[in-house]
Write a structure and sequence with these properties.
Elements: H1 21-27, H2 29-42, H3 52-62, H4 69-82
InterPro entries: RVT-Znf (IPR026960)
Protein name: Reverse transcriptase zinc-binding domain-containing protein
């Protein structure tokens, strides 16, 4: 949209008015369920930050003491790629 391409300004998942990428990757109700699935599987209690960069930082800090750290770090990328 910033480049002049006409696009629907709504989120494709929840139909809410979403003009920013943080909604799509972090705060959409459908995407939040994906995040919750992975955090509950891990036993982590993560509050979703406002920005994607903050999400990556907190996600990496959460898994820093883990033995399967490399697998834990790839989860956000997998979720975002799926979206």
């Amino acid at each position: 949209m910033k480049r002049g391409i006409h696009m629907c300004p709504r989120c494709f998942f929840c139909e809410q008015q979403a003009k920013i990428i943080n909604h799509l990757f972090l705060h959409c109700k459908v995407v939040r369920q994906l995040w919750h699935l992975f955090t509950s599987f891990r036993g982590a209690n993560q509050t979703m930050p406002q920005r994607a960069s903050q999400a990556i930082e907190s996600w990496n800090n959460e898994g820093s003491s883990s033995t399967d750290q490399s697998r834990w770090r790839i989860v956000p990328v997998v979720i975002w790629w799926s979206i």
